[in-house]
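In this supplementary section we document a worked example of the pipeline. Step one takes a protein sequence of length 66 as its only input; no multiple sequence alignment statistics are reported here. Step two produces a three-dimensional model, which step three serialises into structure tokens for compact storage. The input and output of this example are shown verbatim.
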Amino acid sequence: MKFGMRTPSLKKSFRARTTGKAKRQIKKALIPGYGRKGMGWIKNPRKALYNKVYRKTTFGWQDLFK
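The serialised model returned by step three reads:
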């Protein structure tokens, strides 16, 4: 588990900003329950727990300027 600042990645940051709305709309139409709050705990509780702890214990470089 990582603690502290995440390693910045321009490639991943760009992908996260550009792959958005259309892909989510398609998945929401095809996969029941996609995008609804709490579905991660049902689908894969171990990963959901890891992600919850990770988000609370790390921060990105953009958070330094808030």
